[in-house]
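Question (not urgent): is this output format expected?
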Amino acid sequence: MDKIKSFIKNKWTKTVFFVSLFVAYAVITTALLGTACMSKLLFGVPCPGCGLTRANLAALRFDFGEAFRMHPIWFVSVIGAGLLIFAVAKPELRKKKWFSGLWIALGAAMCVVFVIRIFTTAPEPPLDTADKSLLMLILDFFKGLFRAG
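Got this back:
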């Protein structure tokens, strides 16, 4: 019984804490900045996961057409979340080759679909670019300095 209490206290508390932080980050940045995508916020360009937040929210509303439009393999994030839960519950799984292979396959699928999406849907949302990214703001600042001097 003490093992179970310790397990719940340590691993699940940390997992819930980090998942809560991620959800809070996604909600706050989307509300304030229009996107939760770090790549878009920092560099102004989409990442392989662009559209996943909106796709999962659409799936939660049972709007699967919109979910697939926002990200054609949105369900990969659900599989990834399930894998994370299993990795927390059973740490010995992380040592298995098939477990690592599954992560690699999911990541590769995300990257392949990203390349396909760049050529088929960009610059439509969610693969549009952001003009006011941190990188663009910094570059504009330095351009202004050199023009003024």
